[in-house]
Amino acid sequence: MKCSCKFLLGIFFSLTCTLFTQAQQLTPEVQTAYGNVQGFAQDDLNVFLGIPYAQTPRRFEAARPPRVGNETFQALEFSLPCPQDSLRGITQQEAANTCLTLNIWTPGLDDEKRAVMVFIHGGAFYFGSSSEPTFNGANLASMGDVVVVTLNYRLGFLGYFDYSVIGGDRYENSVNNGLQDQILALEWVQQNITAFGGNPENVTVFGESAGASNLVALLAIDNPQRYFKRLIAQSASPHQSQEESRAISQMVADGIGIYSDFFWRGMGAGMLLYIQREVLKTVGTPTNSLLFAPTYGENLVMKQNVVDAVDAGLTKDVDLLIGTNLNETALWSIYASNLCTMTAQQNLFTLIDESTVPQMENLIALFSQTPGREDATGGDLVLAIADEYLFRGPAIDIAERQAEHGNTYMYLFDYPSNLPQYSCANGRAVHSADLFFMFGNLGVDFADEVIGEPRDSADASARENLSQLMMKAWLNFAKTGDPNGEGVPAWPKYDTETRATMRLGTESYVENAPFQSEYEAVKEFRETFNIMRLGK
Known about the structure:
The protein is α/β, with parallel strands linked by helices. It is built from 18 helices and 16 strands.
């Protein structure tokens, strides 16, 4: 077996290998705008791994399209992930030079013009990779007769750091280099996906966590309809204003005490990642997940706040499927058990601003009255407030507005994970749990850490049924802009009158305006307190 395996540590990382073996058949060569590529046949699919969509970028600068190659590119194995803490030594520099790649699963190299689904991975903007087994697109491609694309993009300091605080205004857009990488990959798809059996006029972008946040950010660029027709946002996290990002970057630079442009641009990738690791360690979990994010500003590729962009009609005719998990932030309690014991006086909000204590007390009192939370601890209630503040509330804000411009559907994922060793996460629908169901990859190693083993045969059957339902709904939406179809419960469009929301769990059904009083209360809190102002 021809295998290039990399053991990646971290929340989303596991053993990854090339899928090609010498016994499998190579595909015909496919002509792209940048030269021919050749993949391999696997079951009923044609698979292409590690195709470069950009040249090696200069540090802190936007990437450029790849050069035209004279030799056929052998797309037989994943590239290295983009530089991140889990890689070590010289590998970091190799990754920096080769990581901007994409992968394709397609049922046919023909003229069928299939719907195309382009996935953006998550990882708090500082880790993650398209090669993670969770994101293998084979099941979606086979079930739906669609073309699935996954990709890498720059992370952390290399992808979301406002280097202008050190290098000057010419680096103003460095804060969105990761986002610009994704735009470049979407341009590659527009140019070349026809040769892989796809339809460039029917592209759906979908992503989770940081990936979803990146995609939602694309709603605020000029003419996003150039790149996609539909968007699926799973647990999108907040964006930053240019003022906020610059303040955070200045805080980092001041903390390190190094302002030399020569040093920052010339140091090895491993050293840069060492500095990043120390910064993240100092900030601590879970606040370090807020350090990096897409940034909006008048002179940036993301021109304005997404809500303002939607209000202005810039997203006309973009279909949207958006939602969150019921207990997003419970995932972080697995890695920081002190989150289970939070109180109104000591929590991630008062850590940033002590004056929020009275507001937190009021919110905890409100949330404790919600049916089903009778036995909730203080930590449970603070985490529920954080879920509403960071994930669900912002998703509703966008859905409310986009419903006026395109087909819009809302979901709430609430399959209860089986994690008895983690009291705050057990029985909860934690952040990222939806991915295993949506990709049909319930059996990958990391699933045990997020959803646990099935409780019994009935639970195993319920998992498989939910996975099938979600795959069908996502595929239906990608093809037509409507998730409804055989095997999917009737799913109405979202509007501000009914707020119809599909509850996806052991039983799936539509509920109108779930947790509405909590949404309204936390929305008022969000208007007075901005958790993204870490640099202030």
